[in-house]
């Protein structure tokens, strides 16, 4: 259906198409499906750094338990969408002003990432004469195998070393303005293995239980972070959510003597699949025995495949429109490398991919582009125009022009 919309839209336009397209209906139903399968004492937050687009935040706000943020800018984005929705505030480098403003904006939990930060939070809480609820962010000694980016198990700048947690607890205990509510364990990114994710949650339970018992704490929350991944290399073999839920229910059953709320703060897994990046083939050529197509767009809009040096999944949307009398460049059943319009050989979105047919003027529709796409890209390198931004919503479905709701002005 999205292919048809893109095609129809392109037929009516003069300029080459280049757009991010967000399917809000798909986003809603995806989140609802996650929420209905999560055990009762679990809460799903959205980590907005994956994509902080205002329309997506507005769409998600009525469904998720709240938002996870890592800067004052993100807190302000959330507050401009919803004055009261719960916020979890983490991040390794919080300034005095950020912590102070986070408290002012009423964040629900502050994730403390170091001893020094603990002292700063305590200092501000005393000045303000308030009690601040915190989780200690743990930098685990063990890592989760096969995750793409590891924040734990290897030395990183995040959180407090697992070994130092007892010391942090003894530092917190005498602080009257700090309320230690539990532990935070975001430890990886893009894990696509459900069993290892369940194993990780089990491990978080074991540590939290041990600390609670040993130090006689009264924990309310265990935050197991985000990190559930997308398989970009084989889109038909995704993280097995059903399997994860099956095992998660068992793990929670095993720990039901603890009356904790389990927090998930997923980014990629929530918004990746609702986003598409559609852009037009400007040129096709052969250099050094290899075929290339060049797009109106590239890594300045979708940096993820270049950053991770992997292919991004796409389909070809054929466009019949051809306005010239001269020959339309075309390739049939060939391997091509998909390059962007930037003047750097790093501007590649996929290499050596087989296509059955591709012509100049056809559109490549990249899927799973809703997370870490636009938000992590260097938009103004080379000063090409930014992509348009479209939102699809079944509620608007009267005719195709209505389905495509173009919100150009809010796009910066
Ligand atoms: C980035 C981040 C997330 C979200 O990560 P995903 O891999 O997108 O799920 C959650 N928590 C913290 C602390 C993060 O830094």
From TrEMBL:
One of its GO terms (molecular function) is diaminopimelate decarboxylase activity. Residues 25-271 form the Orn/DAP/Arg decarboxylase 2 N-terminal domain. The keyword Transmembrane helix does not apply. One of its GO terms (biological process) is polyamine biosynthetic process. Its cofactor is pyridoxal 5'-phosphate. The active site is at residue 343. InterPro entries: Ala_racemase/Decarboxylase_C, De-COase2_N, Orn/DAP/Arg_de-COase, Orn_de-COase, PLP-binding_barrel. The modification N6-(pyridoxal phosphate)lysine is found at residue 49. Pfam families: Orn_Arg_deC_N. Keywords: Pyridoxal phosphate. SUPFAM superfamilies: Alanine racemase C-terminal domain-like, PLP-binding barrel. This is Diaminopimelate decarboxylase.
């Amino acid at each position: 259906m999205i292919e048809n919309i893109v095609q129809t839209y392109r037929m009516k336009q003069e300029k080459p198409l280049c757009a991010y397209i967000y399917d809000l209906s798909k986003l809603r139903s995806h989140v609802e499906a996650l929420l209905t399968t999560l055990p009762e004492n679990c809460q799903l937050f959205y980590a907005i750094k994956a994509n902080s687009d205002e329309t997506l935040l507005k769409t998600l706000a009525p469904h998720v338990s709240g938002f996870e943020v890592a800067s004052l800018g993100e807190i302000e984005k959330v507050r401009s969408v919803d004055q009261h929705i719960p916020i979890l505030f983490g991040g390794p480098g919080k300034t005095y002003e950020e912590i102070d403003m986070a408290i002012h904006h009423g964040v629900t939990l502050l994730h403390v990432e170091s001893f020094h930060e603990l002292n700063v939070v305590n200092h501000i809480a005393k000045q303000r004469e308030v009690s601040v609820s915190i989780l200690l962010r743990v930098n685990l000694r063990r890592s989760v195998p096969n995750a793409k980016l590891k924040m734990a198990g290897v030395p990183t700048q995040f959180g407090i070393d697992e070994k130092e947690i007892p010391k942090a607890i003894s530092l917190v205990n005498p602080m009257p303005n700090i309320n230690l509510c539990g532990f935070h364990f975001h430890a990886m990114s893009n894990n696509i293995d459900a069993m290892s994710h369940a194993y990780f949650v089990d491990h978080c339970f074991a540590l939290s239980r041990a600390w609670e018992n040993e130090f006689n704490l009264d924990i309310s929350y265990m935050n197991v972070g985000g990190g559930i991944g997308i398989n970009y290399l084989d889109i038909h073999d995704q993280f097995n959510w059903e399997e994860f839920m099956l095992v998660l229910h068992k793990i929670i059953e095993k720990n039901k003597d603890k009356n904790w709320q389990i927090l998930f703060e997923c980014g990629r897994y929530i918004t990746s699949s609702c986003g598409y990046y559609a852009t037009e083939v400007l040129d096709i050529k052969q250099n050094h025995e290899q075929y290339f197509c060049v797009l109106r767009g590239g890594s300045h809009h979708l940096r993820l495949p270049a950053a991770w040096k992997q292919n991004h999944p796409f389909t070809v949307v054929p466009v019949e429109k051809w306005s010239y009398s001269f020959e339309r460049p075309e390739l049939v059943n060939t391997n091509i490398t998909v390059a962007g319009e930037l003047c750097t050989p790093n501007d590649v979105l996929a290499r050596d991919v087989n296509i059955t047919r591709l012509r100049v003027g056809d559109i490549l529709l990249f899927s799973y582009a809703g997370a870490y796409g636009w938000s992590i890209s260097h938009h103004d390198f080379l000063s090409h125009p930014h992509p348009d931004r479209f939102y699809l919503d079944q509620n608007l479905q009267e005719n195709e022009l209505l389905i495509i709701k173009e919100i150009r002005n809010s796009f910066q």
